[in-house]
Give the backbone structure.
Amino acid sequence: MSAQAIARPRVAPNVARLLRRNAWTLGTYGLFVAVMIFTVAIHPNYGPFEVQSLVVGALPLAFAAVAEACVVLGGGIDLSIGAMMAVANVVAARYMNHHDFQTAILVSVLVLVGGTLAGALNGVIALRTRVPDIVVTLAMSFVWGGVALLILPQPGGGAPDGFLALASGNVLTPWIPAGIVLLIVVVGAIWIPVKLSRIGLALYAVGSDRTAAFRRGVRIGPTRVFSYALGGFFAACGGLALLMSTGIGSPLAGTIYTLSAISAIVLGGVSLAGGRGGVMGPIIAALVLTMVPADLILSGTDPNFGQVIQGTLIVLVVMAGGLAPLLRSRRRAIVPGASSG
Amino acid sequence: MTDDAILLETRGLKKNYGAVVALRSGDISVRAGEIHALMGANGAGKSTLVKVLTGDVTPNAGTIRLEGREVRFNSPANARKAGLASVYQDVSLVPLLTVAQNLRLTGTTMAAIRPWLEELELGDVDLAEYARDLPTPTLHLLDLAQALASLPRLLILDEVTATLPADLSERVFRVARRWRDEGRSVVLISHRMTEVKALCDRATVLRDGSTVGVVDLASSGQEEIVSLMLGPAAASVVVSEGAVADTAPAPKVDPSPAVEVRGLRSGLLQDVSFTLRRGEVLGIVALEAQGQADLFECLSGNRRPDAGEILVQGKTRRFRHPHEAIGAGLVLVPADRALALLRQRSVLENIALPMVNQLKRWGLINTRAERKRVKAATDRLEIDTRAGSRVMRLSGGNQQKVTIARWLATGFVTLLCFDPTRGIDIRTKEQIYRVLRELAASGSAVLLFTSELPEIQLACDRALVMFGGRVVAELTAHDATEAALLRAAHGLERGATGPAEAAS
């Protein structure tokens, strides 16, 4: 049988479908633009400094969100992201203090390796003991929280100026903060190869349907450990970013990032059931979640009330996101067999 | 084609899930260049055998030999490398990946699969579509195309045709024949006897998890397969008929119908009509996935029918919620006890659950009345309540009795029992039959779906056989022998007593 004689199956790009599949991410961009417009409106002197501080402030959360997204896309959840960030943060602050830039980079590399291993450990424990990952990582969050306090009981330490400038400096013009470049480079360098390789496909497959993935020939165990390791790596990035944005190590600052990261991925279109979403949505959502409280303070709202608004925003966005597929499935039910082969 | 070359041979394959033995002793021997059918009644272990063969589950005992060499598969990918590919009963494409990505996962190249897509007439399927967004029959065929692309020496088709319309099934058969003609082998699992007869060379028959025989389809007929599936008559009758007849008075047919179903359509249900009268136990017999589950879901208010009507004591009812069905007197005993029971709670709470609405006094539950009614129900069913503080500690039989006792205590007109005796010991089964007979004698109506055919003659007054979403036969208890039921359930021929229309 000659393969040439056979019509080539259609793999042509389909604009409408691309839009539909990335609707949530696009919605997140839209939300970002809306919040940005609101910010500029109430803050007429919005300039490079404000952009800079937004990025510096959002950087740790953006990394935390990417970390959580890696785990959740693979069908797991990691409640120790924040605690791992805290450990990375205090280790870096303690060993970089009073050293030069080269040492700081060396320490960073070691911290990233350590973070990857810590993440992988979560995965291995959950897999081997068959204790649900939510329990394992909750327990590990206490372990890492304690370790962070052992390393640095009080906020302190520091890092060389050159290292801090990786986030707080700017590239070419004052309008392009170094932090955003750092984020794009690091996430891009790791995520794009993963996404394009078989392991990335396996990660999405395992998150979507474990049985089907197993039958497709995916090795479930290694894939899950990989997703936790990836999460650990980005959590360590988050810890370093925290050091860059605050300039000191703090054993308790990391812990809030676990829940914030989950908020960001939900807002950014990652399904908590796994298998759906990406990392761009969560990054944009992290920026939005950083802007909203600042805006509320600027507009004179009680900061405590700001929390209420932030929570309401998350529920509303997720509700709106849930509405679209529902409407689509209704429409499909009315016209059955439209795409039957 | 060498007739005697054995491609695959298994001996004593065994698989249990906890205490449940799914496969006791699976033996199958497949020759090179044949289409081999795997047959057996519900729960005989066919699917488990397939899963073991393809590495989806690992067996507890037994051996698999491929061309004489012993092999062990710990994953489907492993089996595929050795030349065994399977299309499972449930689709195994990852729903949130595109078809093309699914193919990449198995390492299937476009060049390898394209001829098979064409062969199965899937050339126009958009491979960039998410698997989730494609219709199930298309996914099944894609699954098949992908299995074929690995050019397996043995292709296993597990009930693939059950969800396919006839024209799509024909495409599958065409491929199966081609596979045989090229000297490779196919194992086909199907409930459709005519299909098996037309397509297959030999059949292995399973019963209760064990291989009970191999039939050459060219020389012998359906009768032999049916009798193998039934087993020796003595072994299959679990209760002496006297046990039920003693306690049950001759059913007097009350003219008033409890439930009438007219032209019901929903899910797999195509068009079902029948009347269930007070004072009778009406049996439903069907193979897997012939619409019986949808029928019970509609009647119990778990699902809204697409068309047709349900009349309860003469009045048309449209249930939006089980609560409304219960209010109308239709109560369900589901097959899966875990669905019916609050496993962590006590027997008392489980039985009292549906009647709390009746026992409220000033918003609080009248516990005295509650206890009294629960006691009456547990006594009647002889429920062993020593471990009653948590229902999950009771035996399966006692758990099932609790789900029935719940409705005894609450009160009902029509009891819908969906395979209530699955996995229950003989003595408890006998008690359940007796209770069903007693309920009918006292004027209730009982609709009983059962996968154990002898139960029809033991507990029912008449039986309806469903096939392909329709009622294909109605038999009186007297005529409803296992052989007659099984034949009708395979869609072979009309029951002796006449067409289904006689029901209404």
User: Anything to note?
Assistant: Chain B has two domains: 6-231, 235-329+414-420+447-504.
